[in-house]
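**Fold in tokens:**
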Amino acid sequence: MIVAVDSDVGNFADLRGASWAYNDRRSHSGYGVTLDHLVRLGETAGYFGEVVKSGSHARSIRMVAAHEVDASAIDSHVLGVEFRSHPELAARLRIVGALGPSPIQPVAAARRLPEALKADLRAALLAMGDDPAGRAALDFAMVDRFVAVDDADYDPIRSMVRRFEEAGFTTLR
């Protein structure tokens, strides 16, 4: 969660009545994890004063930096890349907490692709860190490595969705 560097906000509790930017309702890191956090707090009656759709994590970051909104939840990887690429943003923002943890997004391939091609792609991604050019690309992307995952690795996200859906709380307010 980020706020402007000069904000009085020190933690999530300080955000009651504040303005909040989210990137997209289908985003786990920019929307779903916030719904789950509010449900866990028992705060489903309207926590934020204003909720604004930005359209992207990058836009949410800039909205907070420009004081257009008070705060936003930003995917930690996106935030790291943005801070590296735009150090002036890092000087204008402050991290006040984290929501989650959540598993990172998977790399997915279309079902219509041949199985052999999908297997080759998987092998190349898993071995990428062992190749100097691959290692350089991973370093630039701020990625340590790719690892094989199972569907069950995403159960924590399913649990979050189940919690906020069972609570009937599917819209930030």
